[in-house]
Amino acid sequence: EKESWRRPIDAALNYLCACQKAEGGWGYLPGNAGDANTAVSIWPLQALFLARNLGWERTVPHLEQGLRWLTTLVDQEGRVGYQKPGDFPYGPHTLTAMGAFCLAAGDLGGPASDELRERVGVSLQRLASDRAPGVDYYRGFFLAYAMQAARGTSSSGWRKEAEGDLVRPQVVSGPESGSSISAASSPSSPASPCGSDRRRFRS
Asked: Is the Cα dihedral 51, 36, 108, 57 positive or negative?
């Protein structure tokens, strides 16, 4: 551990904890605008996971509060909503992948938590096999991590398809070599802030 990193990390964690809403989630930053939602809250939760694993014990109550809030967004089918159960502005795939990763990695413990994780895991498997039109990179990112975090979840078939989704749009020659163009959204799947509009990217 580099001591010179501690001060900026402390400052970042203090900011995230101060922005956490009373119910446990986060609104849009900066300013923490609007009601708490899954699409924003999974990013501070990831930071708090890392902080916990690196020994920042004071952040654990904030992590647990955020996870408890996230569980209130899960519907009876195991899908994770945007601001409430059943709330899917752009469909359930990406939101459920986001929530499933955090819930699998967090492991609140207890029979209720085990039942919830199992329900979300079943939903995750179902959504992973549902080939939605286009490529949603947020969905792919969190689905891959959720599959990894959900112990015992088979992901080999989905992984091969996801690898193809990443390789096919990549430019292999010329000045833009290595970059990709995200797939256009279909009429039944409107452009979403989760990566289905057409933009060139390199990350």
From this structure: positive
Give just the sign of the alpha carbon dihedral 113, 20, 148, 132.
positive
Torsion, CA 174, CA 164, CA 134, CA 76, rounded to 10:
-150
- Among residues 123, 116, 72, 117, the alpha carbon closest in space to that of 96 is found at 123
Half-sphere exposure of 21 (CA within 13 A, CB side): 21
Contact partners, residue 137, CB within 8 Å, separation at least 6: 182, 194, 195, 201
Q: Which DSSP string do the residues of 64-125 spell out, in sequence order? A: HHHHHHHHTTB-TTS-B-SSSTT--BTBSHHHHHHHHHHHHHH---SHHHHHHHHHHHHHHH
pTM (two decimals): 0.76
pLDDT level of residue 190 (50, 70, 90 thresholds): very low
- Residue 106 phi/psi, 5° resolution? -80, -45
Is the CB of residue 67 less than 8 Å from the CB of residue 103? yes
User: Cα angle at 194 between 47 and 77, to 5 degrees?
Assistant: 85
Burial of residue 36 (CB within 10 Å: 0-12, 13-18, 19+) is buried
Torsions phi, psi for 138 (to 5 deg): -65, -45
pLDDT number for residue 51:
92
Over residues 52-105, the pLDDT tens digits come to 988 889 999 999 999 999 999 999 999 999 999 999 998 888 898 888 888 877
